[in-house]
């Protein structure tokens, strides 16, 4: 399950520009600031691998990283920029949906959910859309190291996760697998890599 080698392959603006070879791919998506870059860096044990995806002009592209020359981590554009005006918000409904519907090499989509905040409508909408379209999904809760803050109304990760799962279980006969992670403590890192290797079947 170990990641020994990682190689940035390309940034694509459309699904049809993605790499042509049919290697299995693990796609990662979530709201901007969810901790996607940090998680990628923690998975591959390198700093700044995911920087490529953060350089101006590339945040809105599909970024392919080749792992151990045998499978891809695909970094998808973040959605729902908190401080952007509506017009500048990522509409993940356009080309990201095209990617999901046109890549039959997707092994699972890792939908990153920030465990330090209560369930967000955008995340639930995203999960439900993937479910409706039969795209295999794994929930990855991020920032699980965060403690309850002093402010009233702020909940602990465990409570937010429970609420999220309750909402999801109403929609799915068999809810997708989920993994708790932290890029600060590396919680869940090995579980996630094991889960991915089991899904890839090698
Ligand atoms: P991205 O926009 O989804 O790529 O998110 P980043 O990886 O850039 O992280 C956004 C912010 O959340 C940064 O300030 C990170 O330091 C912080 N962050 C990311 N992962 C974790 C985590 O596991 N725990 C904590 N406490 N903070 C995190």
UniProtKB/TrEMBL annotation:
GO terms for molecular function: GTP binding; metal ion binding. Its cofactor is Mg(2+). Residues 22-202 form the EngB-type G domain. Coiled coil: none annotated. It comes from the Eukaryota. The keyword Nucleotide-binding applies. Keywords: GTP-binding, Magnesium, Metal-binding, Nucleotide-binding. The keyword Nucleotide-binding applies. Belongs to the TRAFAC class TrmE-Era-EngA-EngB-Septin-like GTPase superfamily. EngB GTPase family. This is EngB-type G domain-containing protein. It comes from Picea sitchensis (Sitka spruce).
